[in-house]
Design brief:
- This protein is of the alpha+beta class.
- The chain has a domain at 57-78 and 124-357.
- It is built from nine helices and 15 strands.
- The strands form three sheets. Strands 4, 8, 9, 10, 11, 12, 13, 14 and 15 form a nine-stranded mixed sheet that branches. Strands 1-2-3 form a three-stranded antiparallel sheet, with no helix packed on it. Strands 6-5-7 form a three-stranded antiparallel sheet, with no helix packed on it.
- A hairpin with a 5-residue loop joins β14 and β15.
Length: 382
């Protein structure tokens, strides 16, 4: 095989104009890719390292006024990127011209659509990958080995699969809220058969603030991303630079600014109801009305790193995700049908044995009758 490194893409080609993430090595001209371990760009051919330019990261933390952005009707800065759209899960993933795999990294379905140019919102900041792919495999193996009832040979089968490093588009929202409510407070009075609940009409106001409520701009990983892979160290956000994305994929956003905010309010209103219940107090609460006002609403648009892979066990396909910053693991839990059957049998036998012991220990006390029979000489005779 020839050791001559590939030439850098020409700046005049359509692909080079669309893809601003091609970084040729200054030594040999091969591709540079972001190395999570070194936090620098590393050459795929000669392993030379190039530092990522340091920028003022205050820009990554800047909050933007939500209402003025919506009212102005101005579009956020976008860039055109070649992308593939998955018809199975709805993901839209950036796609390089030299990639051969057309499997969706989120649902593992084959993508038969053509590569199209899609306008994507430029994020203001991101959390770069800190977990290397080797670490992601090790974390996955540790997680799988800790699963009870997992099939035998689980780590050997999963080790055959490759991880995809994906940057997931994310909205963050801040808001101050004030909620006027009416309702009822229930307090128990009396005891025993006379115990009753007494209701009192109440009203009041609760105020609070929300900071960095996360809403995934992707419909592909929304549940696991928001809950299972959290928390995310947002204080470590870096100002967006394309160098961080070199060698990784990025998903295009499928939820816009207003859609994301509407989703964040579902979470906020649920939390506000908890605040109202706590303010009402008592043993039980009834919320009759809750009128919430929102103010000082701001947003950010960022990218968060996720390692994703799929593996097959006993004919079933499972997805595994790893937080690219913290290493937290989430996966679809695999079960062995044989182990489940054995576990159910052992559980049933245990219940029978324990139930028998309980029935013996709590059965009728026949000792007095034994003593009585012994005294009368009817049962115990020499």
């Amino acid at each position: 095989m020839s050791q001559t490194p590939p030439p850098p893409p020409s700046a005049d080609t359509p692909q080079a104009k669309a893809d601003k993430r091609a970084f040729p090595c200054p030594n040999c001209g091969a591709d540079l890719r972001f190395d999570p371990g070194a936090e620098a760009l590393k050459c795929t051919h000669c392993e030379a390292e190039v530092d990522v330019p340091h920028l003022d990261d205050e820009a990554a933390q800047e909050e933007h006024d939500l209402r003025s952005q919506i009212a102005s009707g101005a579009t956020l800065e976008t860039v055109e990127t070649p992308s593939l759209n998955c018809t199975t899960c709805g993901a839209s993933v950036e796609f390089d011209s030299d990639e051969h795999s057309r499997l969706c990294p989120f649902c593992d379905s084959a993508i038969v659509a053509d590569v199209t140019m899609q306008r994507n919102i430029v994020p203001q900041g991101l959390l770069p990958f800190k977990i290397q792919v080797k670490e992601a495999h090790e974390l996955m193996h540790t997680w799988l080995l800790s699963r009870w009832f997992a099939p035998d040979g689980i780590t050997e089968d999963s080790a055959k699969e490759n991880f995809n490093g994906i940057y997931v588009p994310t909205w963050t929202y801040d808001a101050y809220t004030s909620t006027a409510y009416t309702g009822k407070r229930g307090d128990y009075r009396g005891s025993g058969k006379n115990r009753r609940i007494h209701w009192t009409r109440v009203s009041g106001t609760v105020s609070g603030s929300f900071d960095d409520v996360l809403v995934s701009g992707s419909q592909s990983v929304s549940v696991e991303f928001k809950d299972a892979l959290a928390p995310w160290p947002l204080r470590d956000l870096e100002t967006y630079q394309t160098e961080f994305l070199a060698g990784f994929r990025a998903e295009n956003h499928t939820f816009g600014l207003e859609e994301g905010y509407n989703e964040s309010q579902v979470f906020m209103r649920a939390k506000i109801r908890d605040w109202v219940r706590a303010d009402i107090g008592g043993s039980k609460q009834i919320i009759s009305s809750a009128d919430t006002g929102f103010s000082k609403e701001t947003f950010k648009h960022i990218l968060l790193p996720v390692w994703i892979t799929h593996y097959t066990l006993e004919g079933e396909r499972y997805r595994m995700s790893v937080n690219g910053q913290t290493g937290k693991v989430y996966g679809q839990r695999p079960f062995s049908k044989k182990k489940l059957a054995v576990g159910a049998l052992v559980g049933f036998i245990s219940m029978v044995v324990v139930g028998g012991l309980i029935s013996v220990s709590t059965g009728p006390n026949i000792t007095p009758y034994l003593y009585q029979a012994s005294d009368e000489g009817d049962w115990f005779k020499d």
